[in-house]
Amino acid sequence: MSMNSSKTRRKVVVASAENGDSGDKLDQLLLSSAISNGEDLSPFIRKTFASGKPETLLHHLRHFCRSKEAEIEEVCKVHYQDFIMAVDDLRSLLSGVESLKSSISNSNYQLQSVAGPLLTSLDSFIEARNKCQNINLAIESLRICVRLMELCSRANFHLSKNNFYMALKCIDSIERDFIQKTPSSTLRRMLEKNIPAIRAHIERKISKEFGDWLVEIRTVSRNLGQVAIGQASAGRQREEELRIRQRQAEEQSRLSVRDTVYVLEEDDDDGYFTGNEGNDAYGNGGTGNAALGFDLTPLYRSYHIHQTLGLEDGFKKYYFENRKLQLTSDFQVSSMTPFLESHQTFFAQIAGFFIVEDRVLRTGGGLITKMEVENLWDTAVSKMCSVLEDQFSRMRTANHLLLIKDYVSLLGVTLRRYGYSVDALLDVLNKHRDKYHELLLSDCRIQIAEALAADKFEQMWMNKEYEYSMNVLSFQIQTSDIIPAFPYIAPFSSTVPDCCRVVRSFIEDSVSFMSHGGQLDFYDVVKKYLDRLLTEVLDDALLKLISTSISGVNQAMVVAANMAVFERACDFFFRHAAKLSGLPLRMVERSRRQFPLTKARDAAEEMLSSLLKKKVDGFMTLIENVNWMIDEQPQNENEYVNEVIIFLETLLSTAQQILPGQVLKRVLQDVLSHISETIVNFLVGESVKKFSLNAVMGIDVDIKVLESFAENQASLVSEEEAIQLKKALVEARQLVNLLLSNNPENFLNPVIRERSYNALDYRKVAIISEKLKDPSERLFGTFGSRGYKQNPKKKSLDSLIKRLKDVN
C-alpha cells in the first residue's frame, strides 16, 4: 500500500509540476512533495513567517490533509471488497468439510469392522515375538557371562604364573568388551572392584622385580665394566704384539732389501660386543650379553607392563631418577681404602653403568633418551675428572700414577666404542704428564744413586750366556756380534747395566704413559724427558761419583770405560724410545744427537788423566838427577824417561783391555802433553841454573824415545791418531829443535816461527836460552878472550836473547 501511495504521490507531483502555473500552486506542490519525501519543513516555515502569511501555510497543510484522507478512503474500499469475497469462499468450504466428515466416519466404521480379527492375530504375534526376544536375550547374556568367566579364569591363570602382561591384556579385554555388557549387576560390581586391585597388585609385583633388578645391576655393572676393560687390555696387548712384529718385519726389510718378508695378518678378534648381535624381544644380546652376564629382561618387562598400565611416563622418570641416584652413589670414593686399591672398582663400576645405559638407549624403545644419557655421561666425566685431579695431586709415586692412568685410558678405549666422548679424561691425563715425569725422574734419581753407590769399580764378570744377554745384548752395547767365551770379563762395571735398566724402565714407563692418550706422535715428548734423565739425573750423578769417589787409576779407568759404553747405550736408548713410540728407526738414525753425558765423560777422562799425571809426576822427579852440564853427548835416554815408558807400557797393557781406542788416545795425548810441558817447565824453573848443549842433546834422545813410544801405538789406534799422539810432545820437540838449531835467531821470523815453533812461548824461550852455556865459555870465559872469534850459533843465540828481552 505504501508503494502504491508513493507512486500516486509521484504522479501528483509530476502533474502538479506540469499544470501548476501560479505561485500558490507551486508552493503547495513543493510543500506536498517535501512532506511526501520526508524532508525538513523548516525552510517553508521560515519563508512563511518571513513573508508574514502563516495562513497560507496552514491552508496548504489543510489541503494536503484532505487529499490524503481521500486516498485513504479509496484504499479501504478496495480492501473491503476482497474481505467480502474471502468470507463467501469460507462459507462454501465449510459445507464441503461437513460432507467430508460424514464420508470419513463411514469409512472408519467399515475399517473397524474389517480389521478386528486382524488386530487379535497381531496381538498374539507380538506376544510370541516378545517371548522369543527374551529367550534370545537370555542366551546372549549367558554367552557373555561364559566368555567373561573364561577371561577371568585366564587372567587368574596368568596371575598365578606371574605372566602379568597377558593378565593385563585379559583385564583390558574384560573392561573394553564385557564389563558394560555384563547382564549381572553383581558380577559387574565385583569386576569394577577387583580390576583396580589386580592392576595395583601387578604394579607392586613388577615394581618389586624392577627394584631387585636395580640392586642386581649394580653388581653386574661392576663385573661388566671389569670384563669390558679387560677385553680392551687384551686387545691393546694384541695390537702391541702386532706392531712389534710389524716393526721387526720392517727392520728386516730395511736390512735385507732383496728378501721378501711375509707377515701373517691376524683378525681383530677383540671379543668386544656392540649390542647388535642376537637381540631377543627385549633387546638382550644373545651372544654379547651372555658372555658379559647381564640381562635386561626384568627392566624391559617392567617397562612393558607400565606401558600397558598407562604409566609409561611415570616409569621413565622413575627409572632415570633411580639410575641417576645409583650413578651418584658410584661416585663416592672411600676414604678408608687407598685409591690405588679401589680405582679399578671405581672406574669399572662407571664403565659398566654406561655400557648398560648404551644398551638400554639402543634397545629400550624410548625408555631413556640420548639427551638423558649424554647428561649422565657429562656428570660422570666431570666427577671422574674431579676425582682424578684430586688423587693425582696427592700422589708421590710415579708407578701409582701410571697404573691409574693406564686403567683410565683403557676405560676411555672401552667407552669410546660405545660412542662416549672421553676427551676430557684424556685432557686430565695429559695435564699431569709433567708431574708424572717429575715423579719418574725422582724415582730414577734414587735408583741411579743406589746403583752407583753399589758399584765397586771392578770389571763385571759374566759366567753364563744369559748373563751376557741380559747385561750386554739387551742394551746393544756389545762391540762385536760374536758371542764371547765364558767366563767373560766385560770392559765395564756393574754400574752400566744397572743404570741402563733404570733408563730403559724410564723409557718404557714414559711411553706407557704417553701412549693410548689420544696423542699419536709423542716421540718428541718422550725424547725430551729422556734428555732430562740423561743430562740432569744420570750425568749429574756420574759427575758427583767422579768428584767424590774416585781415588785410584784403576777406578778412574773403569769409570772412563763405563762412559764409553754409556755412549753406545745412549744410542740404544733413543732407538728404543723411537721403537716403542712407533717411529721408524731410520728417522732416528738421521738425526744423530750429541752425547748427552759429555760432562761426565770429560770429567772421567780428566780425572783419569789427572791421576796418571800425578803418577807420571812421581817419575818425572828423576829429571833432577840429570847432569845438565855434561861434557859428552849422551848415547842413551835419561833414567826418568825409562821409568815413564815402563809405567806407560804397563798402563797400556791394562787399559787397552778396558778403554776404547779413542778414549785411550785422548788420555795418552793428555799425559804425553803433560810430560812435554813438565820438561819445558823444569828447564824454565829455578832447579836448572844452566845447561849445556850436550844436555839438550840428551833431552832430544828422551823426546825421541817418547815419540817412538807414541808411534808404536798405531796397533791400538790408527796411524793418523798415532801421529796426533806424537804431536802431543810438540812443545818439548820444538824447544829442542830451536836450541839445537844453527840459527836460533830464526825464531824471530814470523813465518818460520809459525811453521816450526808455533807451540813455544817466547817468554819461556828467553829464559831457557839464557841458561844455555857454550863449552868455550866455561874454558876461556874469564881470560884469553882477546883475538877469540865468536861462534856464529852463539852469536845468533845472543841476538835472540837480546831481542826477546827487548820484547819483554
TrEMBL record:
Origin superkingdom: Eukaryota
Protein name per its UniProtKB record: Uncharacterized protein
